[in-house]
Amino acid sequence: ANVDEEAGPHRKLTNRGEVLGEHVAAGLTSTSRFDGARAVPAAAAMLSSLPLQILLYFNGWYVLLYSLAMLALFAWKGTWLPYAESLRGLFVLEVVLVFALAVIDGARIFLGSKGNKTERVGPLAWSTGLAFASIVAYVYYLKLQIYVTRGDVIVNAFAITFVAAEILLSVLTIATFTRANRAAR
Could you list the residue ranges that cross the membrane (predicted)? Predict the structure, then answer.
């Protein structure tokens, strides 16, 4: 480190030329990092939930596998199981609901991940609200659709477990963010 002659002996230049003495005087700690020409204060405690983020990541992949499995099950059901003509419309509606559920779950996972990473309550709360809509759809596929096969029970039970765990972790994370926001005021 060079000594800045006009700034005095206590103001050292870093290899990028930022003056360390000014940053210490500004209240930045020695753990502060430099981002280009400006100092970034030392990071506050991270409030994001790593278990929630991991669960959201793996649930994103599970939603893809779930959608493919449900479409394969519906293809099998439509081919091999007898549907009365009056139930064909309901069968088509159940297939369309798989696509709608994939979109809802994609939005839910995106909002949950965004809210968790940015430590914002709003997106995380929306994600939790969409999670309840997802659970209603999963319970429909688990109990109320025209034909419920063992495959339906397995994939929907896993989906409900994933979403229930996400709801629990989301509520705890929202409480953590809210408590930290109140303490910061």
Answer: 54-76, 88-111, 123-141, 153-177
Structure tokens of 21? Answer: 């003495």
What's the pLDDT tens digit per position in 131-172? 999 999 999 999 999 999 999 999 999 999 999 999 999 999
* Chain position carrying tokens 């199981």: 81
CA atoms of 179 and 185, how far apart (whole Å): 10
Give the span between the Cα atoms of 130 and 182, in whole angstroms. Answer: 26
Residue type for position 49: S
Taking residue 178's Cβ as centre, other Cβ atoms within 10 Å add up to 11
Give the DSSP H/E element, type plus range, for residue 33.
strand 33-35
Which residues fall within 8 angstroms of residue 157, CB to CB, at 6 or more apart?
142
- For 22, list phi and psi in degrees, rounded to 5: -65, -40
Token output for 66: 């779930």
First to last CA, the chain: 39
Q: Which residues of 122-135 are buried (b: 16+ CB within 10 A; e: fewer)?
A: ebbbbbbebbeebb
